[in-house]
Amino acid sequence: MVSQDPKFAPKSEPADSHETLSAMAAAAPVMMQSLLESQHDVLTASQQLVEETFNFAMKRLDAQREFFAALTQAKDPDALTRLHTEFWNRASADYAGEFKSVTQSVQGMVQKLQPPKQAA
Hints:
- The chain is an all-alpha fold.
- It is 78% helix and 0% strand.
- It has helices at residues 17-73, 77-113.
- The mean pLDDT is 83.
C-alpha cells in the first residue's frame, strides 16, 4: 500500500520555475563578474602586502649586516654602546613605520571589500 501522507507526495514544480531559471541564468554573468572583481582586488592587495613585507625584511637584513660590519670596526666600549643604541633606535623606528604601513594597507583592503552603500 502506498502512503498518502502529504510530506511524501511528489513535489510539483511551480509554473514559473522556467522563468526563475531564466532569470538566474541571465544574472549569472553579472554575479561572476562581481565575484571576480572582488577577488582581483583581494589578490592585488595581498600581493602588495607581501611585497611590502618582503622589502621591509630585506631592509632590516641589510641594516643588521651593516651593524655587524660596524661592530668589527669599534675601537672601544663607548663605540660599541653607540652602535647598539643607533641600531636598536633605527630598528624600533623601522618596525613602527612598517606596522603603520601594514595597518593602512589592511584597512584599505577591508574598505575595498565592503559592499557599496545603497542610496536610500
